[in-house]
Write a structure and sequence with these properties.
The chain is an alpha/beta fold and 342 residues long. It has two domains: 200 residues, inorganic pyrophosphatase (n-terminal core) (Alpha-Beta Complex); 130 residues, Roll (Diaminopimelate Epimerase, Chain A, domain 1), CATH 3.10.310. 39% of the residues lie in helices and 18% in strands. The protein has twelve helices and twelve strands. The strands form two sheets. A six-stranded parallel beta sheet has the order 3-2-1-4-5-6, covered by helices on one side. A six-stranded mixed beta sheet has the order 7-8-9-10-12-11, sandwiched between helices. α2 links the parallel β1 and β2. The two termini are 32 Å apart.
């Protein structure tokens, strides 16, 4: 993340605004990943260390993915039911591209003020205070610089939460958004006590057996398109039933599709829970690109989703998996042609 004069000024302004807050509620997007959860926990700890009354909240009640359960502070996050005094607390939304992604309309409407901190380029700027730095690898990286401006001590616990967010959203430091500054921040966090080898093992090398079975089903259902440039797999409700899994075990699966030789765009299409009773099919689409020349954020946006240039997603209702696959084939073919990669 290049700290230009305008970025530095924006970081300072948000740091001062956060320091002035005495009662806050910190949240992130539904179905949170490592960047969202790590950022929520890190900011909660930083504000509490400066004397603020800070609570953490997630709108969903589903268990978080197993990858993130090692994070200290996770059990302190309130889920589902809003805290009784939420309407008196400044709402701080982290890693959340739009107000809808928070997952609780009442919380958003009742908030006396919203501070929105994010790195998604398509963020809707829904707060009274907005800090969106799209060139940052992660929201966690942005928070690192904010904490420096605030004068907040970055403890070992905060360092591990931030490192987790950076590791995950930089694609293990392989995405184009992983700048020289990103590596410097990561090194600093390791120096402050982030156990980087243990974090990596927790996130990527402690895989439940059921998830491994789901991984196998994903490859059984694999199809290639666009001359081998597009890898697509569809997981239906039956796949989850047969493997004894749920959609919270899909984290990271799509990255394995992208690793196939020759693949430029990987897509995992998976059925949302409760499809047996649903009137219309509903799927979650997860997209990854192996090259910054193909913008999967643009593809996801066409279906009401969003994300980053190389990692994006969308929720799609009313279309069959076959229709989604056809849509992807058309869009990826066009994107490859537009990038001159044929």
């Amino acid at each position: 993340m290049a700290a230009s004069g305008s970025v530095d000024k924006a970081l300072t302004a948000v740091a001062e605004a956060l320091k002035a807050e005495t009662r806050v509620l910190i949240t992130c997007h539904v179905n949170p990943d490592g960047d969202a959860l790590g950022s929520v926990i890190a900011l909660n700890r930083a504000l509490a260390s400066l004397g603020a009354d800070s609570i953490m909240f997630l709108a969903g009640t589903e268990p978080v993915a197993p990858e993130w359960r090692f994070l200290k502070g996770l059990k302190e996050i309130t889920t589902g039911n809003l805290p009784g005094d939420h309407q008196f607390r400044t709402l701080i939304a982290l890693d959340c591209g739009s107000a809808d992604r928070i997952g609780n309309e009442e919380l958003v409407k009742a908030a006396p003020q919203i501070i929105n901190i994010d790195h998604h380029a398509d963020n809707t700027r829904f707060g009274e205070i907005n800090l969106v730095i799209s060139q940052a690898s992660s929201t966690a990286e942005i928070l690192f610089f904010i904490f420096q401006k605030m004068g907040a001590e970055i403890s070992a616990e905060i360092a591990e939460a931030l490192y987790t967010g950076i590791l995950v959203d930089s694609g293990r430091f392989q995405y184009a958004s992983a700048s020289a500054a990103t590596f410097r921040v990561a090194a600093d966090l390791i120096g402050r006590g982030a156990r980087h080898t243990e974090i990596f093992r927790h996130v990527y090398e402690t895989v439940p057996l059921a998830k491994t079975r789901l991984f196998c089903r994903m490859f059984e259902n694999l199809s290639l398109g666009c001359g081998g440039r597009l890898a697509v797999s569809v997981l239906e409700a039956e796949d989850f039933r047969r493997t004894g899994t749920s959609d919270n075990l899909t984290e990271g699966l799509v990255d394995s599709l992208r690793a196939i030789e020759g693949v430029m765009v990987a897509a995992l299409i998976y059925s949302k829970p409760g499809q047996e009773e649903a009137e219309a099919p509903s799927y979650r689409l997860s997209l990854r690109s192996s090259s910054s020349a193909v913008n999967v954020q643009r593809i996801a946006k066409a279906k009401g989703g969003g994300g980053h240039l190389q990692a994006a997603g969308a929720s799609i209702t009313g279309e069959t998996a076959e229709q989604i696959v056809q849509f992807l084939s058309d869009r990826v073919e066009r994107a490859i042609a537009r990038a001159g990669l044929k």
